[in-house]
Amino acid sequence: MNDIYGIDNTTANLADDTQKECVVCYTNTKNTVVLPCRHMCLCIGCSQIVRMQTNKCPICRTQVSSFMQITVDANGNQTNE
What we know:
Strand order of the largest sheet: 2-1-3-4
CATH architecture: 2-Layer Sandwich
Structural class: alpha+beta
CATH superfamily: Zinc/RING finger domain, C3HC4 (zinc finger)
CATH class: Alpha Beta
Radius of gyration: 12 Å
Number of domains: 1
Helix content: 25-40%
Number of helices: 4
């Protein structure tokens, strides 16, 4: 996960609150990756808003082809949805 999205369990646990927050709402935790640019910068709710309004990554303005939600279970294992 770290090679692809720049995250791992250690980094996620050590990051301060501003690094964990969605870049749109600043309330929810980031859990959605923008493809093809691979920026993990949105919560699932804001990804739907971005899809409907601009369909561009809020970080680099690349046209979005899809979103991938990343979840971490209680054991710290990451899964893609």
